[in-house]
Every structure is written in C-alpha cells, then in structure tokens.
Automatic annotation (TrEMBL):
Keyword Hydrolase: yes
Enzyme Commission no: 3.1.1.-
Protein name: Pectin acetylesterase
Enzyme class at the top of the EC tree: hydrolase
Endpoints of the signal sequence: 1-20
GO molecular function: pectin acetylesterase activity
Keyword Metal-binding appears in the UniProt entry: no
Similarity remark: Belongs to the pectinacetylesterase family.
Protein's organism: Gossypium armourianum
Main localization category: secreted
Described purpose of this protein according to its UniProt entry: Hydrolyzes acetyl esters in homogalacturonan regions of pectin. In type I primary cell wall, galacturonic acid residues of pectin can be acetylated at the O-2 and O-3 positions. Decreasing the degree of acetylation of pectin gels in vitro alters their physical properties.
Biological process, per Gene Ontology: cell wall organization
Localization per record: Secreted, Cell wall
Any single GO CC term annotated in Swiss-Prot or TrEMBL for this entry: plant-type cell wall
Length: 412
C-alpha cells in the first residue's frame, strides 16, 4: 500500500514541479537563458574571467535584489585595443511581482552571493582573434544582472526585503569602470543579450553621454527586440509581464522621456517604441523567430492550456502549417517594427530567419566555420563592418525555411 501511495503521489508532485517551472519560465528564468554559459564545442578551452564586486556601490544604494553588492567580469585590453571598451550587459529575464522577485533573489539573477566566481568569455567576449576578429584585444566587461528590470528600476519593498536598484547598479558600474580607465576610451561599444539587449537599447544614449564627442560610441542589442505581441490565446502575456516589472520596480522614471511624454511607461519598455528616438548609432541583431519570445511570449503554457503548441514551442520542425503561418506573422510584425529604424544611415541590422536567442555570446553563432550567415556574411563580420564604418549593414533574411546556416535551438 505504501508503494502504491508513492506511485500515486509522485506523478502529482512532478506535475506541480513542472507547472511551477513553467510559471517561473514565463516571468523570470527562461529555458533558453540556461544555455547562456554553455561553452560550445568550438571553444574547448575558453578564457575564464573572475568576478569583481563594486565596493563603492553599497554607499550609493546600488545593490542586487537581496542587498548584496553588484559585480562584473573584466578582461583588460592590450595593444591596439588598450583604450577600446566593450561592455556586455548580462541577460536573464525579469521579475514582475513579489513572489518571482523573492525567488529570484536566491539565485545568481538576484544576488552576487550565488554568482559564478568565474565565467567563460566566448563569442564577442573571446580573447582570440580567430574567434572574435574585431574586439578580441579590447577591454571586455560582462556586467552581471541582479535586479530583474533590465538595469532600469529604482525602488524597494521593505516588507519582502527587496531592493529594485537596477538604474543605480548601471550608474555605479559605469562610474567604477570610468575610474579604471574607460574615461580614456577612444572607442566604446555597449552590448547586451536578451534582457541585457533591451537594457543596451534603453541605456544607449546615456552611455554615449559618458564620453567626449571625439570618442566613437555605438550600441549593439542582441535578442533584445521584444515585441508587444498578441499570444496564441489572444492575450498579451508579455505586456502583462512588463506592466508588472515597470510598476513594481519603479522603472517609469528611468525610461526615455521622448517616449514617456506621449506613451504609457509599459509601452516605453518595449524597444519598438524607443528605437526610432535613439540618437546613438545602434545595431539590432535578432532572430526572426526568437526562441524566448516563442516560448514565453507568443505561446507560453498559460496561453496554451491544451498543449496544442507544446511540441512546436520546443522544436520548430514539429510545427504544423498553421503554426508556421502564425510565426511568419510574428516575423512580419518584427520587420514592421524596424522599418523606421532601418532608414537611419548610422543604424545596423542583422535579422536572420533562425529559431535562436542570443547569438553574440555563443562562439558557434558569433564566428566559427559554420556560423550563421546572411549573404555570406557571419554575424561577427557584420557587426564589425558596421562598427568601424567599413560598409553599411542592413541585412534581413528570407523567411523560414530558406536559411540553411541557422543553429536552431531544439529543447527536449
């Protein structure tokens, strides 16, 4: 009887665990971003870079969700890159209510206590010229993400012992890096992936303002073009998520005024409503069928109670013709969102028709023998050509399934 009871209880407990995971998946830790520190087979021996805590941050109230000090990983530049700086803002979803933020503060996404003491630098952070041809010898910095609002919040919840200080973390980190030599930069690039890609857009003009006009300053957003899209149930999962983030964390005061002057704060957390107003040259790198947006925004379990999208969500090869038509509609929405942006001579664009997310930090997608290409140009070369004004880069792939160079993500 005891054995029977165990077999009755176990499936129920497992179902509850799965439901809880998908709940957090939608609002905090995505499936995809668990791959962030996965080292691709291309780079068997990546450079490991240690964590530096920002000791001046505490006095400024610039702390993680749990009150611990924020930090970054920095590998010094040398030679021709000694005075060049690349800042990579870490991604990792958001938290939009007390419950998910309390959960988050017990992880590396909300506390430096749980952060890895060393992380691999691959892709755009690699120190090898054959893996990162244009930025390998720059000062390369990975700023850790521990606030849950793309480095833009500034409030607190004393009852839950939560500090929402993303904007202060951003400012404290920039001040610390300026004191360590970044103020002498002759060229700088602010980049980020996912929630960090959104942060790179929202902070782009602030970053430009740190440097003299003579410094070449540009921004790169990788997988940060989150769309205000309708989900498969007709609801607005991601707008609801963003509304919670903005309201809970006091984000509205730190969003671009040129947007909040005529739109509500939640709308101004969506890049499509901000990118046309950014004065600093910006490069948008995005998959037309972004894996995170498919899983957590377009077809999350909450919008798909009968599981019609379950297989398609995990593996694009299992999508039905009607589901693929829906995803083609999402691609069209993305292309419409960047129409005005792409008209600027200074901006850059690389939209490939892949089921992917965060392509600049993974070596196999950034620059490798078989990395994704559009018109025979891999991502690293496209970004470098744009940054150094070697040629204009505004490339948009033909629709799925025409691109055979994609490294499509499949989940089991």
């Amino acid at each position: 009887m005891k054995l029977l009871w165990v077999w009755v209880v176990l499936p129920f407990a497992f179902a509850q665990l799965v439901n809880a995971f998908f709940d957090f998946n939608e609002t905090e830790l995505s499936l995809i971003e668990s791959l962030e520190y996965g080292v691709s087979k291309i780079n068997y021996n990546p450079l490991m870079v240690g964590l530096t805590l920002i000791h001046t941050a505490g006095a400024k109230g610039a702390v993680c969700l749990d009150g611990t000090l924020p930090g970054y990983h920095w590998h010094r530049g040398y030679g021709s890159g000694a005075n060049s700086w690349l800042i990579q803002l870490e991604g990792g979803g958001w938290c939009n209510n007390i419950r998910t933020c309390v959960y988050r503060k017990k992880t590396r996404r909300g506390s430096s206590t749980y952060m890895e003491k060393q992380i691999p630098f691959t892709g755009i952070l690699s120190e090898k010229a054959e893996e990162n041809p244009d930025f390998f010898n720059w000062n390369r910095v990975k700023l850790r993400y521990c606030d849950g609002a793309s480095f833009t919040g500034d409030s607190e919840n004393k009852g839950a012992q939560l500090q929402f200080r993303g904007q202060r973390i951003w400012l404290a980190a920039m001040e610390d890096l300026m004191s360590k030599g970044m103020r002498y930069a002759n060229q700088a690039l602010l980049s980020g992936c996912s929630a960090g890609g959104l942060a790179a857009i929202l902070h782009c003009d602030e970053f430009r303002g740190l440097f003299p006009r003579t410094t070449r300053v540009k921004c790169l957003s990788d997988a940060g073009l989150f769309l205000d899209a309708v989900d498969v149930s007709g609801g607005r999962t991601i707008r609801s998520l963003y509304s919670g983030v903005v309201g809970l964390q006091g984000v509205q005061h730190n969003l671009p005024r040129i947007c909040t002057n005529h739109l509500d704060p939640t709308s101004c957390f969506f890049p499509q409503n901000v990118i046309n107003h950014i004065r600093t040259p910006l490069f948008i790198l995005n998959a037309a069928y972004d894996s995170w947006q498919i899983q957590s925004s377009i077809a999350p379990p909450s919008a798909d109670p009968h599981g019609y999208w379950h297989d398609c969500r995990l593996n694009h090869a299992k999508c039905s013709p009607s589901q693929l038509r829906y995803l083609q509609g999402f691609r069209t929405q993305m292309l419409n969102a960047i129409k005005g942006f792409s008209m600027s001579r200074e901006n850059g664009l690389f939209i490939n028709s892949c089921f992917a997310h965060c392509q600049s930090e993974r070596q196999d997608t950034w620059f490798a023998d078989n990395s994704p290409e559009i018109r025979n140009k891999p991502i690293a070369i496209a970004v470098g050509d744009w940054y150094f004004d070697r040629t204009a880069v505004k490339v948009v792939d033909c629709p799925y399934p025409c691109d055979k160079t994609c490294h499509n993500l499949v989940f089991r």
